[in-house]
Amino acid sequence: MGHIAPIFVALAVLIAADEAWTSGLEWPWAALVPLTLPHLWSWATKRAFVAGHFRFGGFLYTSLGWLPALSFVVVVLGFGWAGWIARVLAPDATALDWPHVSVLLVLAPFVGYSLLAIDARARLGDMRSEEQARQRRFHTRMFLATLAPVLLLIVASWLIGLNDTLRANVEHVALWSGLFAAVLVVATMLLLPSMLRRVWQTSPLPAGPVRRALEGFAARCGFRCRELVLWHTGFQMSNAAVVGLGGSRIVMFTDLLLSQLPERELLAVFAHEIGHVVRHHVLVFVAWSLALFLGMELTLVRLELDSELAAGALLLATLGVWYFAFGWYSRRIEVEADMYSVAVTGDMEAMVAALERVGGPASRALHSWRHFSTQTRVELLRSSIVDPSLVERWTRQLRWIGRAGLALGATVLAAQAWTLLESYPSDRLVVELALGRYEHAARLARDVRELDPDLASLIARAESLREDQRVPQALVDAGQSARAANQPSVAFELLSLAQLRGAPDLSDDLDSLAELLRTESR
């Protein structure tokens, strides 16, 4: 989870670069400077601890994880790394619209900085080289596993973008765009177990008493999964997790967890993971996320916000709500899974002992984004013995939250589907314009009831053009000529057709013409 936020920052930087939120400098060699920073930062961190400045040392240690993202911000937005890549090496390197595979070149410094930061952290302790290597391998695999879905999205988008017809349909038909996003999410969820097994170092849980005990317990609970997996972390992490959906689901146990827990406590942890599945926690989380983000999109459509700043503010607010709501929900479902474990095993002391052993005494009272502290979780379990109604109240609250999420998610999904279907006839016309099939667009337009007047005017303009006027550059030239001749409506239509046909970015020209037309219509 520690790599998610820096990766999101790196992606935001790519988008900002595409929007030209840069200094205007182009010093690509500056990308080499941050290569030296992680180990210098590590040296400063060690010096701070040796000198007894523990708070400052802790700050430096934590900020080392953010150093790659911050370096990437400076290199891309300050020193023009992305602009240089687009100008010299890969003109198609863009993160917006249809990401090109060459955007990986733009992202490369961030990956390099992250790997160097992982190495610098591994070298911080006075450990043997073998232990440093184990830490380095483990954290590298964690980073690559977090980055893998992003790379999958970039490559999938690039492949679809290679086909003009597919690209136009997904880009301009809201229905196909929604289905593309849904297929990508479902495919990622289904492929996630296999992907993680290859990126992380895993193997089937060895045959023996531990595996037999886990399989017998799963059978008694009616729980099915594809595989029980041993996750080799170099004894860096004590954890268990259920990954995937339905028949592709696997359950992973880290090497440290298996070495720490006796059988009773291991079964309690396994029951906790089963509790997440039985209580449908992932499904509820997905439902609430759909409700939130699709609801935001519907709000943007209904409000017809012209300001990119206002739309960006709404997106940031939605992300903020999601972050805090997910943390609130996650902490509570972890407690519900604890209570489920006690209910099915009948062994509260095993669950308590597992929590204490895995959490450790140093962080016993510390809360995290996703978990209550070990102390709080143990107190809640012990309170449930004194007051059995606590479990019922806790379960009832989360059940209502789950039902509300499922209902709201289904409602928003239905509203989104209605919106997509409603826009489908008009979207098809835009696809025909994007592909240059102007006569076909005109024929289809005759069958569309309540055709948007602006779209009808655009189709009429397209149909009136000669064949030699329909190529992108000819449309741009004609549009600029019309603008010079003080014909803003004609210029707007011609430049809109040019942009649909793939002409270089004309957003600024179109925005200024749209503002002029709005002023004239008042």
Task: Outline the structure in words.
- By secondary structure, this protein is mostly helical.
- The protein has three domains: 162 residues, no CATH class; 139 residues, no CATH class; 98 residues, no CATH class.
- Helices cover 72% and strands 3% of the residues.
- It has a four-stranded mixed beta sheet with strand order 1-2-4-3.
- α14 runs antiparallel to α17, α17 crosses α18 and α18 packs antiparallel against α19.
- The chain starts with a helix and ends with a helix.
- The model has no long low-confidence stretch (mean pLDDT 88).
Helix percent band: over 70%
| Strand segment count | 4
Radius of gyration from the CA trace?
A: 28 Å
Spatial sequence of strands, sheet with the most strands: 1-2-4-3
N-end to C-end Cα span? 52 Å
Q: Could you describe the largest sheet, including whether it forms a barrel?
A: 4 strands, mixed
Output the helix-strand order.
HHHHHHHHHEHEEEHHHHHHHHHHHH
Instruction: Estimate what percentage of residues fall within beta strands.
Output: under 5%
Give the overall shape: globular
Tell me, rounded to a whole number, the average pLDDT: 88
Structural class: mainly alpha
Uncertain spans? none
- Number of separate domains: 3
Per DSSP, the total helix count is 22
Short account of what is shown:
The protein is mostly helical and 522 residues long. The chain has helices spanning 4-18, 37-50, 54-64, 67-78, 81-89, 103-122, 129-161, 164-172, 174-199, 209-221, 255-260, 263-278, 281-303, 308-345, 348-359, 374-386, 389-434, 438-445, 453-463, 472-484, 488-500, 507-521; strands at 202-204, 227-231, 240-243, 250-254. The chain has a four-stranded mixed β-sheet with strand order 1-2-4-3.
